[in-house]
Amino acid sequence: MRPLSLQGHQRSITKIRYNADGDLLFSTSKDNTPNVWYSLNGERLGTFDGHNGAVWSIDCNWDSTRVATGSADSTLRLWDCETGKCLNILNTKISVRSVLFSYSGNLLLYSTDQIMKTQPEIRVIDINSGEHLSGESAVVAIKDPEQKKALSSLWGPLDQSFITGHESGSIVKWDIRNPGEIVQQVRNHKAQINDLQYNREQTVFISASKDHTSRLYDAYNLTPMKLYTTDRPVNSAAISPICDHVVIGGGQEAMEVTTTAAESGKFENKTITMVNNNSSSSLIPSIGVPQLANNITLLAEHPGIFLQSTSAKVIAGAFTWMALIITCHQIYKHLKYYTLPSEQRWIVRILFIVPIYGLDSWFSLLFFRDNYYVYFDSVRDWYEAFVIYNFLSLCYEYLGGEGNIMSEIRGKPIRSSWWYGTCCLTGRTYSIGFLRFCKQATLQFCAVKPIMSFATLILQAFGKYRDGDWSPDSGYLYIIMIYNISVSLALYGLVLFYYATRDLLSPYDPVWKFFTVKSVIFLSFWQGVILAILEQADLISPVFTWDGAKASAGTVSAGYQNFLICIEMFFASLALRYAFPYHIYESNYTADNHSRSVTMQSISSSLKETMNPRDIMNDAIHNFHPNYQQYTQYTQSAKTNSGSSATGQASASTPKSPILTDTSNGYNSAALTETNATNVTLSTLSADNQMANSGNNSNNDSNVNNSQNRQIPTISQNYSEKTTLLSSDDEFQ
């Protein structure tokens, strides 16, 4: 939310003060006209017209019916708060620096300036004594023994004492029953004190000084509690009765800065959280244009942080859209040259993580409000789990499926390694149960992540979820524990699979692919956890809602997380472009499809096939079924169970991975290529897709030999079904 702009004054602010209920904010200025504002939306309700000089002070009585002002025109005026009508005028003959109603509303304390040989005075008058106010009938009249004028004042309990702030920087407590006798005096400021104001409970008060500081004091013993520093002299400070922040307003006259016109001064207004000393908003207008003095009345409704600025949204948007353009172009190229669907379907799914992550995070930043990020992040979390599964499936596909993998590693001993976490598997050998564990480790994450996201939404709706809140009564603790176990298990499954097959995967540059995918998924998770901890430890500035309430825990940390993800997705798009290049499939397409034209309809069909989530459900059922058959091997054979010659023809033209046929990588893949040409294996999910699409494939058999309209071979066209159930292996059950 943007700061409220209370535009109305033409010169520098001299006093700001809330009424007792906190819904009205009164301000005075050197433009001679006090203003009253509605504090929650910044609407100006009216002005009090009549003074002929700078108005130094203003106060409202306890029921907000009367307003008192003191001015440099040597008058003290009483006003009707509702109508703005002047009810009474007290001619003081000397400038009035401060005015203050007692709690009963019967007494009014004011202090006067020092002129020539006239000493400054502090007077208390009874405003109910008659129609006309008179300083001569003052209940109390005190002349400052230090010859330093009192610029601000506060009443003590039961109207029996009062506190004054002086030009010397001293704060003095007086007893109204013993006028002239100082009860207590402290001097923590180095320059004049311009303002003193209580909090709602009158237990502490805040001072505003020309020495560029404000301090919180204990109202009982005048002990300083907190120090706030600014870059300008502080003219006034107020503690909100309904929020836990203070408002500090001030500035420096041009005559004290330079020799230019008096209207060209430097002014500043800040809203500061009372507890944490965090600056909410710092607004410093330019110098040299008189109209810019209006900016001195700007009041921040809540702390303004970088995430709420237009700059943050523009920067995040720029990185997001650059990442989107790069990745969408890469996805388009893969769909255009969709020559090996068995591999490219997984690649396209993985690439979609950049648009989903980037746009989701950017929208969260655009609609930066309390708790909104939870709903945006849930979409991101669901796809995060989907990517893990697709990456493992792509690795399976690179190696020809479970059958080929097992033919390579079955019976080999598992090497012990602390780094890869296989030290506890010493003496064991690789088996089909090992592959099943790796697949189950990723599939469980695909189930746990959406469930936890849904649980987060429910807990958030009932107020039981707060990011960074580790207390037992908060759902965040349990969500993070479950998620951490699940994501660690998924990561462990990927690491085990890579450790077992890294030699087989070497032609596919697995290190870069593993690093890119795991960085996007796992590092972003721990980045979010660290930011949540920093916010919980008050190391990140909080955000306040429109009514002054502090935003719930996690809002700011999630905002910074989304901002960082927007930037990180640009670099992720570059990394993914090199990790999953399309040019190798383009070269294969160019060699085999000279007469074929690519239409948007064919690209759309490829995209539709790619994003169909049926395979993940079938694979989950297969791997977690109690009657799990170790694996199903598919071999290429002409005229097998289906007896279709068209199937045999399609099988004869089975495309091979262009990575293996690329001799530039220096990998001797003759044996593996020969194996794939005669005995290609796929996972069970491919068989399910084959049987599901067998009816559709029969319609396309007649077009196989048509060079003008030949369709891209699908998995079901490339392979015929033949199952061989191997012996059960329970080593990893």
Helix content: 25-40%
- Derived from helix and strand composition plus strand pairing, the structural class reads alpha+beta
Distance between the termini: 56 Å
User: Assembly type of the shown chains?
Assistant: single chain
Radius of gyration: 38 Å
Membrane topology: Multi-pass membrane protein
GO molecular function, one term: translation initiation factor activity
Keywords: Initiation factor, Membrane, Protein biosynthesis, Repeat, Transmembrane, Transmembrane helix, WD repeat
WD repeats: 6-47, 48-89, 186-218
Explain what this protein looks like in three dimensions.
- With 733 residues, this protein is α+β, with helices and mostly antiparallel strands.
- It has a domain at 4-304: YVTN repeat-like/Quinoprotein amine dehydrogenase (Methylamine Dehydrogenase, Chain H, 7 Propeller).
- The protein contains 19 helices and 26 strands.
- The strands form seven sheets. A four-stranded antiparallel β-sheet has the order 2-3-4-5, with no helix packed on it.
- β24 (266-273) and β25 (279-283) form a beta hairpin.
- α2 packs antiparallel against α3 (341-351), α2 runs antiparallel to α4 (353-366) and α5 (372-398) runs parallel beside α8 (475-505).
- The longest helix has 31 residues, at 475-505.
- The radius of gyration is 38 Å and the shape is elongated.
